[in-house]
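Students often ask why inverse folding is considered easier than folding. One informal answer: many sequences map to the same fold, so there is more than one right answer. In these notes we will look at a single instance of the problem. The structure comes first.
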């Protein structure tokens, strides 16, 4: 499912065959609505009608291609426009989309294709190209069983190991540009999240030739969270996560969280469970937490650099 309003259709060309004694192409005529390059709904019965000489047998053969098409940019629903200081609206929308599609238990015909990593303004030109590529690969691989490079990854486990969290995935995940991993936050039992650093498991130190990694395992830590309990990835209004499945640019890892700390709900859906005063206090507290993180990390820069150097390395 694309948040930017992409759709996949079947574009058809038709061949008509008219059999029987003395049959010619001129004896067959179909209704004017049928022509090459028409678009119809897939997996539905199609009724085709027209005219031919009495007694002739008519055969219809359809040839189809998959096309990925963009709607107009003003048809898109921009999650960035859902901002409210007191809640993670966009994050909850992304999560409900992904989990809702998973509940259908029909991976051949439904899929969630993240687009948060395309940090470009609007939907035009360059961004549409990236999204089209992802949707086309998903359709060819899942719907039409074409052998293409497309895969999703799921979090298998998230376990605490001292002052860090160890994450295991069912497929390798890594930035496609070999840069530092971005997009993680961790929290202790108080539920206060701080930006975190992450690194893959180092399996071999090859000196000047670099390290070898197990990309299915990540180690996540923050110097401000001594007893981590939960992890979040790319969970924000405009997240900056850069992990890709198998390191492929067209396969971004979807956002996720390991906690169950949902936004407070009211029995009356019209009424917000958090009033304006509480909302303002929460926003101020979050801003103070960000400032504290910046100040503390600046004071402990050398210590943090040493911790990051050891992150992901075996004892």
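Output (designed amino acids):
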């Amino acid at each position: 499912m694309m948040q930017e309003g992409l759709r996949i259709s079947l574009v058809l060309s038709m061949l008509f065959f008219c059999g029987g004694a003395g049959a010619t192409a001129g004896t067959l005529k179909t209704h004017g609505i049928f022509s090459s390059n028409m678009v119809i709904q897939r997996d539905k019965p199609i009724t085709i009608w027209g005219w031919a000489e009495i007694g002739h047998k008519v055969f219809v053969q359809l040839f189809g291609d998959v096309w990925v098409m963009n709607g107009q940019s003003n048809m898109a629903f921009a999650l960035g426009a859902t901002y409210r200081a007191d809640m993670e609206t966009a994050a909850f929308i992304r999560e409900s989309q992904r989990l809702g599609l998973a509940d259908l238990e029909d991976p051949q015909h439904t899929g969630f294709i993240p687009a948060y990593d395309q940090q470009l303004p609007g939907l035009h030109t360059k961004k549409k190209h990236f999204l089209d590529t992802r949707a086309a690969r998903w359709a060819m691989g899942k719907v039409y069983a074409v052998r293409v490079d497309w895969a999703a990854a799921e979090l298998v486990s998230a376990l605490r190991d001292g002052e860090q969290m160890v994450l295991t995935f069912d497929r390798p995940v890594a930035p496609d540009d070999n840069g530092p991993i971005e997009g993680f936050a961790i929290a202790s039992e108080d539920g206060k999240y701080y930006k975190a650093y992450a690194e893959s498991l180092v399996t071999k130190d090859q000196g000047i030739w670099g390290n070898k990694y197990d990309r299915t395992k990540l180690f996540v830590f923050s110097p401000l969270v001594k007893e981590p309990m939960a992890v979040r990835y790319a969970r924000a209004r405009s997240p900056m996560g850069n992990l890709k499945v198998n390191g492929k640019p067209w396969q971004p890892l979807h956002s996720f969280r390991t906690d169950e700390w949902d936004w407070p709900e009211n029995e009356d859906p019209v009424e917000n469970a958090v009033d304006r005063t509480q909302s303002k206090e929460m926003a101020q507290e979050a801003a103070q937490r960000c400032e504290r993180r910046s100040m503390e990390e600046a004071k402990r820069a050398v210590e943090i650099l040493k911790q990051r150097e050891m992150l992901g390395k075996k004892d």
